[in-house]
C-alpha cells in the first residue's frame, strides 16, 4: 500500500481525498497556489507545498512543480482529483517515468477515451450503442455538410478534445452550419489547442444519465449504478440524483451491462464514468467516458455505502475488485453550491465569506473547503460546496434538501442556494419530469414573489 499520496488539486475534492487517506493510515501532501494558502486542504494535510502563483497554468497545471513537490516529500502516488491534470495523458506518463503511481487512468487509456471521436469508435467496436454521426474526425466543411445531410438535422457539432460545453454547437438548419462550424473550431482551438470536430445527430431533449464503473488490473469491471445529471446550464451540471426517476429495472440492467462491457473491452483500470444520452423512448447512446472521479461521486457513495476514493486507491495499489454490481437502495440528491448570483444570470461572485452556517442532521452531507472568513478568489471554478441529502425515498430526499438549503447560511457573497431552493419546489422537478432542456424555460422568481 502507498505510504504517502500527493493530491494534485485544490478545494473540496482535495479535502475529500485527504480524509480518505487519513482513514486508511496514508500520509497526505497538499499542494497549493499562493491564492489558496488559507484553504482547508492545506490545513488538514500532513504536509503542504506551495507550487506557484494564483494562475492555474503556473500552479495546478504546472506539471514540473507538482512532480518536484512529490519528489521532495517522497510521495509514492499522486491523486489528481477532477479537472486540472486528472485526464492529462502527458502528466500520467510523467508520473510513470518518475516511478510515482498516478491514481487514475494510464496515458494510453486517457488518449483513447479522452479523444471523443476515438472513444466513440472504440465503443462502437465494443458493441455499445452510439449516436449516429461521423466516423472519426471531419476533415473539411464539405464533408461536414455531407454528413449533416445524410443523418438529417438537427445535428450537434462537437470538439474532439472538448469538455465543459466548449466547442459544441447545435445546428437546426443547413443555413446555420457554416457559422457553427467556424465558431466551434475557433472556440475549441482556443480552449484545448485542438480544433478537431466530429458530428452527431442531435438527440432532442434527452436525459443525461451516467453509469459509475470500477475496473481492476485483472481486466474485470463492475458498475455502481446510475446518476441522472440532466439538469444543466450551458452543459454544466447543476444538480444530480440517484436513482434516476426515469430509470426502469430493465433499462438499468441494459445500461449497466453496456457500461461494464465497455470497461472490460478496453481493460479499464480505476474508477470511471460512462455517460449516456437517453431519449424519450428509453433508447440510450454512448456520449463520452470520464477517466477520473466525478464531482457528483458522493451520491453514489451515499446510496450504496461505498467510499469511491478508497476504491481508487486500492485499485491503484493492485488490489482486485469484488466484481459485484450495485443497485441503489436509498435515494440521494446533490446540489452544487456555486459562488454565483442566480438572480443575475449566474454571474460569478468572488469575495470574502463573512458568515457561514452549515446545515446538518440525519441524511445531510456537506463537502466543502470554505468557512467564515475565507475569501473566494476569481481564478478557479466557482463551486464552493456540494450539499447532499439521502433518504429512503425521492420525496423524502427532496424534503430533506429543502430543509438543508433553508439552514445553509452564507453571507458576504452571492450563492446558488436560492436557485436550488426554487428548483426543489418546481412541479416538473418534483414529478421527476425533466430533460437537459429544463433550464431553457426555468425562470428565477424574485424573493418578493416567494414570500
Automatic annotation (TrEMBL):
Residues 1-444 form the Biotin carboxylation domain. Coiled coil: none annotated. InterPro entries: ACC_Biotin_Carboxylase (IPR051602), Acetyl_CoA_COase_biotin_COase (IPR004549), ATP-grasp (IPR011761), BC-like_N (IPR005481), Biotin_carboxylation_dom (IPR011764), Biotin_COase_C (IPR005482), CPAse_ATP-bd (IPR005479), PreATP-grasp_dom_sf (IPR016185). Its EC number is 6.3.4.14. Residues 120-317 form the ATP-grasp domain. GO terms for molecular function: ATP binding; biotin carboxylase activity; metal ion binding. It comes from the Bacteria. PROSITE patterns: ATP_GRASP, BC, CPSASE_1, CPSASE_2. This is Biotin carboxylase. The lineage of its organism: Bacteria, Pseudomonadati, Bacteroidota, Flavobacteriia, Flavobacteriales.
Amino acid at each position: 500500500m502507498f505510504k504517502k499520496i500527493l493530491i494534485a488539486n485544490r478545494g473540496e475534492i482535495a479535502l475529500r481525498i485527504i480524509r480518505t487517506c487519513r482513514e486508511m493510515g496514508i500520509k497526505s501532501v497538499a499542494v497549493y497556489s499562493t491564492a489558496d494558502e488559507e484553504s482547508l486542504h492545506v490545513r488538514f494535510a500532513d504536509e503542504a507545498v506551495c507550487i506557484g502563483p494564483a494562475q492555474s497554468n503556473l500552479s495546478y497545471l504546472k506539471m514540473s512543480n507538482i512532480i518536484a513537490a512529490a519528489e521532495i516529500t517522497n510521495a509514492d502516488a499522486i491523486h489528481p482529483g477532477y479537472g486540472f491534470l486528472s485526464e492529462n495523458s502527458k502528466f500520467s506518463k510523467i508520473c510513470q517515468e518518475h516511478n510515482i503511481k498516478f491514481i487514475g487512468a494510464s496515458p494510453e487509456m486517457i488518449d483513447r477515451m479522452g479523444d471523443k471521436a476515438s472513444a466513440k469508435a472504440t465503443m462502437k467496436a465494443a458493441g455499445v450503442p452510439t449516436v449516429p454521426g461521423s466516423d472519426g474526425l471531419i476533415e473539411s466543411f464539405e464533408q461536414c455538410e455531407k454528413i449533416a445531410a445524410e443523418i438529417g438535422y438537427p445535428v450537434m457539432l462537437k470538439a474532439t478534445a472538448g469538455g465543459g460545453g466548449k466547442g459544441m454547437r447545435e445546428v437546426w438548419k443547413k443555413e446555420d452550419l457554416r457559422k457553427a462550424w467556424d465558431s466551434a473550431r475557433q472556440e475549441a482551438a482556443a480552449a484545448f489547442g485542438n480544433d478537431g470536430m466530429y458530428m452527431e445527430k442531435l438527440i432532442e431533449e434527452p436525459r443525461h444519465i451516467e453509469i459509475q464503473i470500477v475496473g481492476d488490473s485483472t481486466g474485470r469491471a463492475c458498475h455502481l449504478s446510475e446518476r441522472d445529471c440532466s439538469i444543466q446550464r450551458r452543459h454544466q451540471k447543476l444538480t444530480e440524483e440517484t436513482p434516476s426517476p426515469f430509470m426502469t429495472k430493465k433499462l438499468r440492467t441494459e445500461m449497466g451491462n453496456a457500461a461494464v462491457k465497455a470497461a472490460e473491452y478496453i481493460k479499464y483500470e480505476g474508477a470511471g464514468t460512462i455517460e449516456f444520452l437517453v431519449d424519450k423512448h428509453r433508447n440510450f447512446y454512448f456520449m463520452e467516458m470520464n477517466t477520473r472521479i466525478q464531482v457528483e461521486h458522493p451520491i453514489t457513495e451515499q446510496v450504496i455505502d461505498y467510499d469511491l476514493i478508497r476504491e481508487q486507491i486500492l485499485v491503484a495499489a493492485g488490489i482486485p475488485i469484488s466484481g459485484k454490481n450495485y443497485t441503489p437502495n436509498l435515494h440521494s440528491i446533490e446540489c452544487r453550491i456555486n459562488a454565483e448570483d442566480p438572480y443575475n444570470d449566474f454571474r460569478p461572485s468572488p469575495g470574502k465569506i463573512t458568515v457561514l452556517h452549515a446545515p446538518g442532521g440525519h441524511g445531510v452531507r456537506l463537502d466543502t473547503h470554505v468557512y467564515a472568513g475565507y475569501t473566494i478568489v476569481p481564478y478557479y471554478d466557482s463551486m464552493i460546496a456540494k450539499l447532499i441529502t439521502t433518504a429512503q425515498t425521492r420525496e423524502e430526499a427532496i424534503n430533506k434538501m429543502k430543509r438543508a438549503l433553508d439552514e445553509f447560511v452564507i453571507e458576504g457573497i452571492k450563492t446558488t442556494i436560492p436557485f436550488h431552493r426554487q428548483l426543489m419546489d418546481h412541479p416538473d422537478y418534483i414529478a421527476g419530469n425533466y430533460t437537459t432542456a429544463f433550464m431553457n424555460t426555468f425562470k428565477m422568481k424574485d424573493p418578493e414573489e416567494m414570500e
